[in-house]
Please model this.
Amino acid sequence: MEKRASIAVAFGDGIGPEIMEATLAVLKETGAQLDLHKVEIGEKVYLSGHLTGIESSTWETLRNTRAFLKAPITTPQGGGFKSLNVTIRTSLGLYANVRPCISFAPFVSTKHPKMDVVIVRENEEDLYAGIEYRQTPDVCCSLKLISRQGSEKIIRYAFEYARQQVRKKVTCFSKDNIMKFSDGLFHSVFEEIAKEYPDIQNEHWIVDIGAAKLADTPEIFDVIVMPNLYGDILSDVAAQISGSVGLAGSANIGSHGAMFEAIHGSAPRRAGQNLANPSGLMLAAVQMLVYLDQTDAAEQMHNAWLTTIEEGIHTYDIYRDGVSKQKVGTKEFARAVVQNIGKKPQQLKPAVYRHAPPNKPAELKKSIPSSRELARELARELARELVGTDVFIYAHTDARAFEEKMQKCDTGLLKLTMITNRGARTWPEGIPETSCIEQWRCRFQAKKGVRLDQRETFRLLEALHANGFDIIKTENLYTFDGAPGFSSAHG
Model:
């Protein structure tokens, strides 16, 4: 007999309670060995004064159960409320977001009947770290964080997932032709790790043309791994072109737990009408059963769902005259799935689960290969040298007036080498057509023969302040083994 697993369950907001009831009804009939622990999260908790939408006591439940099955929630508008999904993913270290996007043609309408793509999205960093600033009345800034550690975890997960699920290829999407350091790091780590999996094909696409090909010819892809923002956007696109966002489930896997959810929202305007399609949450529950190694129950639930779709028993969102046989509500769809437990689809590919996907980084690779060990050792030994600083200034002025005032400052051992506005160089050799805003970047670099320490940057800031400049941000400039660790000017 399979070991019972304790799971946390959140019924969510909007259509959440309806689709969760439907999903739990099917789970019960599969024989899944689950102990349920209900938790309250979402809109009511937000409005009771918790800006993150979750109470302190709920964290203990999440930390002491093996998985979290979550219905969609509503985040109130305004008031500084933070995304609960992001909070849970980052707090619990759920670094891998896994979204299968599969077509169910001819029973669900799609232009891509052969589509079978899994998007593996990095889940903890990138712009979703949420480090943002309003620097001036009209300028806001977000910091994009890409780390070697985060990139290694998600890319290795993608390759291990492909190997265990008998998939042939892993594709990386990035934008490293523009963001050469952040996306460049993600791409370079992909190339390093790909060498350790000679049995799996690998390729890299720039994200814009990759997205175009995904929308046009998704059957050329198998597993796609990408940073957080691209993965969030393109997994929704992939789900929609496969048939419907309403059919897609999502797994969030970490070192110490996992969360499973539908990828769609809480749709409050559909709440309480017995209309919502519970399929996304049901398929997320299938992923949860696989994660818990309850593969018999996972197969039963998935095949019963496939059989129901094949029989043409559809909710309103995927119902089509001439293809669908019966339009049903949320409860009726769940009953149909229950009645089909034990059956397998005749035309759609039956689900077979023999191996759980990797759950923890330690399970992905018990011993770090020598090539990776060497790469990390080299990274630690790189000689880092401070060679200057970029200072961001708030000023309502034109480029020429700003340049003249800045050049009058005595900057000590640092020399002004560049002024940019929105990344476009305005000095030296700027042109009058450049459109400027109120945020300026001034680059100061060490004068010839000078070896800097941070005290020189402090003196620079004091000099700029004494000359009336409004400093809003600084970034130190470093070289690593002599190679610049900062972008050059555009334009």
Notes: The longest helix spans residues 148-164. The chain has 15 helices and 20 strands. Residues 383-484 form a domain with the Alpha-Beta Plaits fold (CATH 3.30.70.1570). The chain has two domains: 5-364, 383-484.
